[in-house]
Write a structure and sequence with these properties.
With 426 residues, the chain is an alpha/beta fold. It has 2 domains: 223 residues, Rossmann fold (3-Layer(aba) Sandwich), CATH 3.40.50.1480; 157 residues, 3-Layer(aba) Sandwich (Rossmann fold), CATH 3.40.50. Helices cover 45% and strands 17% of the residues. The strands form 3 sheets. It has an 8-stranded mixed sheet, with helices on one face. A hairpin with a 5-residue loop joins strand 15 and strand 16. Helix 1 packs across helix 3 and helix 2 runs parallel beside helix 3. It binds nicotinamide-adenine-dinucleotide (NAD) and S-adenosyl-L-homocysteine.
Amino acid sequence: MTATAAPQLKHEVKDLALAPLGNQRIEWAGREMPVLKQIRDRFAKEKPFEGIRIVACCHVTTETAHLAIALKAGGADSILIASNPLSTQDDVAACLVADYGIPVFAIKGEDSETYNRHVQIALDHRPNIIIDDGSDVVATLVKERKEQLSDIIGTTEETTTGIVRLRAMLNDGVLSFPAMNVNDADTKHFFDNRYGTGQSTLDGIIRATNVLLAGKTTVVAGYGWCGKGTAMRARGLGANVIVTEIDPIKAIEAVMDGFRVMPMAEAAPLADLFITVTGNKHVIRPEHFEVMKDGAIVCNSGHFDIEIDLKSLGAKASEVKDVRPFTQQYKLPSGKSVVVLGEGRLINLAAAEGHPSAVMDMSFANQALGCEYLVKNTGKLEPGLYSIPAEVDKDIARLKLQAMGIQIDTLTAEQVEYINSWTSGT
Ligand code: NAD
Ligand code: SAH
């Protein structure tokens, strides 16, 4: 680990010697991020973040590197910390420090104490804007650093669970600044949560285990955006997918999409593989572990490591053994074993590289433009959750289509008139 070694740049990364590899990989990711590239080029000219301190708490990946570089091009004084102890790509962290002069505090596999210390370091930067992924930095600010609240212009939140936490803060009257809801932009969750999580979750499972998915009975817990993508891609690889839900509408949707739907208690003895993507707590619990098949594989791709009750599993287990990277076998007193991937943390970011760059291009375009919107509206927005403006969302989609070389139709004058009138019926 190198701490504070680069000239005058504070950082905590694994090894600055990894920078050349990081550089190569960041460049590769850039091929699939044309929308963010255009935004970065504009930021470089207009410098919207001159004099603004930004803290980004995101997965430190090749894609996040492009966001950090775009913010820096826009004049921001920013630092980057990890939003998850297992997702950091150490070569990327090294490259951002060594080649781009961006302070990074993130090491793959850091313990919870280090993770929390990095959150404190981020707040020591006295941010004006917080880019959060799960709301850990904002929650810490609100709880522990009230004296800094007056520095804050706003926050932009990346993920579903972060939005849930921000809503809870608003309800409790403790959120005193505006929050941009990046997750709910159409060009974010339609693509990132669905296609990104769908592909990268299975990528993580395959990299961790090398199992064949064809013919495997696979439970997907939660049929929200992430669950739909995961179930769709698991089926595409030949898995026999069962969905569990608590929402009757989502459950009907899953049924009509052709999946079997049943409670976890019924699914537990049937499946070879379990994937949780609910954002909820203890979706797989001791009573489920007890009836699982010997060698069943369990993993999570939702926020935080609480969807699977690993504490109870650990307490029951007579032995916990590393059997492959990111793969641990828990032996139960019954003689059966349960295999847990990625310590119950997001498997797509722990064992694979997270979402592919092409979807993060749109997610991070929303982040970059969300930050710019906050700066442009400094002092004008009441505390609350704000959608990314619809025209920004559409512009991102337009730019993405353009970059893909795809044209679409435009309304004719006759069509405009028709859809705006109520007089012409059947
Ligand atoms: P969502 O709200 O669209 O879907 C969650 C679904 O889980 C809902 O349909 C809900 O009814 C269901 N659910 C809740 N409790 C349940 C339970 N006990 N059993 C079964 N189903 C239950 O949210 P989403 O956008 O799909 O996100 C899900 C989680 O994944 C969030 O924590 C989010 O932050 C995270 N996320 C992860 C990634 C990733 O890279 N792995 C990407 C985006 C979002
Ligand atoms: N702090 C939370 C993070 C939630 S992760 C935790 O540790 O559980 C979910 C978010 O990760 C998604 O909203 C998605 O946008 C983001 N993500 C997925 N792949 C990524 C990638 N390649 N680079 C950066 N962020 C990514």
